[in-house]
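Bit of a strange request maybe. I'm writing a small parser for structure token strings and I need a real example to test against, not something I typed by hand. Could someone generate the tokens for this chain?
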Amino acid sequence: MRNRRTLSTSAVALTTAGLMALGLGAASAHVSVAPASTTEDGYSQLTFSVPNESETAATNKLEVQLPTEQPFTSVRVKPMEGWTAEVVTGALPEPVTTADGATLTEAPLSVVWTAEPGAEISQQEYQTFSISVGRLPEAGTTVMLPATQSYTDGDVVEWDDEVVEGAEEPEKPAPSFLTTAAVEGEDGHGAHGAAAETPEAIDAEPAAASTDTGSVSAVGWIGLVAGLLGLAAGATALVRTRRQA
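Reply from user aminoacidic:
Good idea to test on real output. This should exercise your parser:
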């Protein structure tokens, strides 16, 4: 009988640990990017999903670094209420020759969004930020877009770790995506469709779907509460087992 009680208590403890692990894992979220298209030599709308991860402060600024080895020649910002946006243009580290044979010495280097008072991203909230960019580099290129997230208490989080395929995800992964080749006969609205020919065509398309990190966070807290309830049940079972033994 005692062995059965011990096994029962152990099972409760293992279940509790699993629930807590699921809860804590789901509660975490990253700054991520969802491209409307990844087709080489085309234009795409990039939508950044930014969750607020601080328990005491709000997100009031986001800066996204743009590629410089294969720079975008066109960057447009989608306006959003309560936030100001600036496309920062500057000198490239080295001149770049485009597919058209032109030599670039300057290009858009970053995009900075700053919240107006009252528009910050608060606890348990997230926001999306969209830009139209082009042209995308050749197929098979990983486009890294390191992001800097600033909080009202002065804390700054750098999302700039490189994500390596097949390796464990880093703690602060940089938003990134992989470009793909054009597929003949597709309409250009999917990740593998034909390249959009102009930034105006991208502006007319609906925003890309992005991960609802608010819902993810809610699921995480539900999992955490379930884990704590399981822990309490496990402790109660352990006390009863010791008394009956």
